[in-house]
Amino acid sequence: MRDKQLRPDAYAQAEEELKILLADVITEVKNGMDIDTAIKAAYEKIYQSINPSFNYDEQFSFDTCYRDIPVVRMEMFTVARKLINNAFNK
User: Fold this and answer.
1) pLDDT tens digits, residue range 50-85?
2) Minimal CA–CA distance to 47: which of 68, 65, 72?
3) φ/ψ (deg, to 5) at 55
């Protein structure tokens, strides 16, 4: 919460980016998709926006020291969960 107070512009920018990137996932949540599945799909889309060849299931099946996960700003995940939760509760 403190990070959001210190950097509101970063969170606003992330929200604008993610509304476009996750539009199909948000629509699926509104149509009844499971929230856990939606969050996983959102995380995968976020990682793939950095590295298009990223495979979520493959990378997370490796031991921690062998994973090759793209660097993503943490506010992206926070905002993605917020958007999905908002769509789930409507």
Assistant:
1) 999 999 999 999 999 999 999 999 999 999 999 999
2) 72
3) -115, 110
- Structural tokens at position 55: 């495979």
For 32, phi then psi, to 5°, come to 115, 10
| d(C-alpha 36, C-alpha 82), whole Å | 13
Q: Give the span between the Cα atoms of 8 and 39, in whole angstroms.
A: 22
Q: Which positions ≥6 away from 80 have C-beta within 8 Å?
A: 18, 22, 39, 42, 43, 46
Taking 90 as the threshold, does the pLDDT of residue 4 lie above it? no
Q: Could you tell me if 83 and 15 are in contact, meaning their C-beta atoms sit under 8 angstroms apart?
A: yes
